[in-house]
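Researcher: Structure prediction, please.
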Amino acid sequence: MGGRPKGVAEGSRLILLVDTSVWADYLRGRSVSHVAALEQALRAGDDICISGLILTEILQGIRSDVDYRKTATYFKSLVFLPMTYPTFVRAAEIYRRLRRNGVTVRRPIDCLIAATAIEHGVLLLHNDRDFDPIETHAGLRVLHAARESRPR
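Model: Predicted structure follows.
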């Protein structure tokens, strides 16, 4: 990710990992706050990131071959955040920390997505309440769609 500060690109641009929950609504053309936040980030020239898990979740849900190819091509243009051995260890640590705090983790894949964002120091844009306790207990940094000002 070069010499940029983590999570915030040069100037006031953001570096965002966009979760499947946002992409699904964006691709369906829904007019909701998290899609508006993504559209604002795209217009602002923010760095939009994808991980292998998010890419897989999005592509596996596309029925049309034409839409599949178009979407796969578009996602190829985004910043790809790799997952390494430490990412998986961090995800397990997140899962364990949440359990210790009495939080039931419904989808361990969310721990992997959160670990990817934390490891790369980027903000996560999501519409999935399962990330809320990860933000609270594990230091996940989130761009809240309803927030009127952008983080610095």
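Model: The helical segments are 20-27, 33-44, 52-60, 65-76, 85-100, 108-120, 132-138.
Researcher: Thanks, that helps.
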